[in-house]
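Supplementary Text 2. Reproducibility record for the structural model of the 613-residue chain.

All settings were left at their defaults, and a single model was retained for analysis rather than an ensemble. We include the record here because the model underlies the residue-level annotations in Supplementary Table 4.
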Amino acid sequence: MVPPGAPGDAPNRAGKPGFFGRATGRAPVQARAPALVESRPMIEATQALRNALQTVFAQLVAGTGQAAPDATFETPKQASHGDLAITGAMGLARALKKNPREIAADLVARLQQQPAVQRWVQSLEIAGPGFVNLRLAPAAKQAVVAEVLAAGPCFGTSARHQGQRVMVEFVSANPTGPLHVGHGRNAALGDCICNLMQSQGWEVLREFYYNDAGVQIGTLATSTQARLKGLKPGDADWPEAAYNGDYIADIAADFAAGKTVTADDRAFTASGDVADLDGIRQFAVAYLRHEQDLDLQAFGVHFDHYYLESSLYTDGRVEETVKRLVASGHTYEKDGALWLRTTDYGDDKDRVMRKSDGTYTYFVPDVAYHVAKFERGYGKVINVQGTDHHGTVARVRAGLQAVGAGIPAGYPDYVLYKMITVMRGGQEVKISKRAGSYVTLRDLIDWTSRDAVRFFLISRKSDTEFVFDVDLALKANDENPVFYVQYAHARICSVLAQYTGLRGFEQADLSLLTAPTEAALMLKLAEYPAMLARAAAEFAPHDVAFYLRDLAAAFHAYYAAERFLVDDAALARARMALLAATAQVLKNALGVLGVSAPESMHREAPAAEGAAA
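Retained model, structure tokens:
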């Protein structure tokens, strides 16, 4: 198993810089996203139907003193049950003291009087104990095709949170070695969450927090110095706590050669002096930060700002935070240590802030750092960390409440992720020659591809353990989920390239799209904006991966059931419009995950049968 945290001390967030630390060589910038438009998936139909349902719910509870339930539709598990389902009758049974099916019958009768239902609904049916299944009129489903084509890359986005700022802190790996697969999961989650937030109008700052001092960095410096002295792992004088990977020898060789290394946030020139331990430390940190930058670039991840943990001490933020906590009256002295009464804020026990030797525990600089985040104007902050940091959540939030800075309860938000097992050739892979003790992110990218790694690492909920099957990621068939999705896009591009009829798909006669697989595909397209908004609100990029697999399945079913390049020119044009809309949504959703949308791919096929798109 590979732990989410970096090798070494606990403070490494997956691994951890400061606002007052070095930036990237440029002022912090907001990552650019496409100009947002409020996409309107079947908006005239769905919003009108929602309003109609809310009106009827209000009628049903009138005079009872009960609040009307929210007007929401659910998606039936079986397509044969309809396009949408209403379950509100079940919840109203107790309040109205009626049988749910009786309420459902009243609900249907009242809905049938609503103009929106008369226009957009084909049928309403009562099922089971009181469900109402709703079948949309074909025009309601067909409307989404034109809406996708009109919005293009912006379909699914929303300007709802425009003008609001959010900071996402992720990766945050101390520069003590190459990024491992746990950091990869962190990077994939964090970057996708940033993209999700941007899709809803948020101004996103991507921040990387790390330490260039402390025990871990001290071990890095002494390990490199030992290599400079000609020692290697296994030698009698090799430090017991040293880092053993080959990368230490690489750092030592470049330091001895007097090289200069440049990372996004720092640069340093080696003195070549084996006795210059501080110089070795600074060079090693810059060297590994540069290596991290290269790995992250290969993974398609960038940061707007770097924050040094050490700056919290040099700028006095830690001391100031401790003073504020003491002044709040929530601290006390015991056994020579300073304690924070975190139980006042729901923690299971009080926590030591300052140990008897005068040093601070790990959560104190975390509290100082988050005070700084809040004071920098980020009222919403999302931290992506390994589940080994679960214990810090309550104490950091307690410290932020106790400090008295007006920080809201529950600040910041956390997304915690579990460890990864890497399988190759049916065997678990536990080590890398370069890293010495764990599989690196670069290993996974080199063995498979960036697209495969990014898709796989967000394809499950973050709080579940994940097995990365290298062999599966290399398959060019439907067993490989990222291939399955990308191949749908490539297939569409192949069909569109063969089409020789009229373009201008926005003018196609969409009323001709009446085949069952067409209806199913259009309904799936219409789900995209709501799914995207929900995934952003819940910090759940895996929902996008789930949706993509479902959308690809709906397309592949359509591909198998219908011919597209038919003799009927109007029908062919309408089907090209639906294909173009499907390709657009596939590309949009893959873009949220940082995965490409290829226009051609080759697929493995059984026996002598070949397949390509």
